């Protein structure tokens, strides 16, 4: 089963995806990490990834999809895979490069996102970058929700609780799958 965890920047989706993957004994595909490590090379593709990430913009879809497909192929024998950070656009969701069995949408307000991102103190979490990331999220990623909702695979999770409470909610929901 492919489980996608999505939410705005600062929603805790990566933390929750990690905890869910541990609970299920499943691989955790963190698209952000995948792109980060791919950006460490010296080839032109790596430099393009790095530049896009520094600007808080989406990495080229073809590059991202190629990396995702490779990861999924490398883990094709896994019973479950928890995917975090993909798809990020409606066109990526519509391509359906892998079957999506469940989507957990971790919902938090923009205000909560900003608060969480500024408090973690990372260099790429400047006010301007956060503003751009939220703008991109609302424009590019939010439409995915309406793509998955009629398919009956989307579940909304209140992301403004404590980490442990959200994790318990996800664990309970995933055990019912």
Overall outline:
globular
Strand order of the largest sheet: 2-3-1-4-5
In the CATH scheme, what's the topology name of the domain at 2-29 and 80-172? Rossmann fold
Runs with pLDDT <50, length 5+?
none
Q: What series of H and E elements makes up the topology?
A: EHEHHHEHEHHHEH
- Return the CATH architecture of the domain at 2-29 and 80-172: 3-Layer(aba) Sandwich
Mean pLDDT: 93
Tell me the fraction of residues in β-strands, as a range. Answer: 5-15%
Number of H- or I-type helical stretches: 9
Give the arrangement of secondary structure elements.
Blueprint: E1 2-6, H1 13-24, E2 28-30, H2 31-38, H3 44-54, H4 61-74, E3 81-84, H5 90-95, E4 102-107, H6 110-119, H7 127-141, H8 143-148, E5 154-158, H9 163-175
Parallel strand pairs: 1-3, 1-4, 2-3, 4-5
């Amino acid at each position: 089963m492919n489980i996608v965890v999505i939410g705005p920047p600062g929603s805790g989706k990566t933390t929750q995806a990690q905890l869910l993957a541990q609970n299920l004994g499943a691989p955790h595909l963190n698209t952000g990490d995948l792109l980060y490590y791919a950006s460490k090379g010296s080839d032109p593709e790596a430099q393009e990834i790095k530049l896009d990430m520094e600007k808080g913009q989406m990495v080229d879809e073809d590059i991202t999809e190629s990396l995702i497909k490779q990861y999924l192929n490398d883990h094709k024998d896994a019973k479950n895979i928890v995917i975090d950070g993909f798809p990020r656009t409606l066109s990526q969701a519509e391509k359906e490069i892998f079957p999506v069995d469940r989507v957990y949408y971790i919902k938090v307000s923009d205000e909560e996102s900003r608060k969480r991102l500024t408090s973690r103190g990372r260099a790429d979490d400047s006010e301007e970058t956060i503003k751009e990331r939220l703008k991109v999220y609302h424009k590019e990623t939010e439409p995915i929700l309406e793509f998955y909702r009629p398919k009956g695979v989307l579940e909304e999770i209140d992301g403004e609780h404590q980490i442990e409470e959200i994790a318990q909610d996800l664990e309970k929901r995933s055990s019912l799958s």
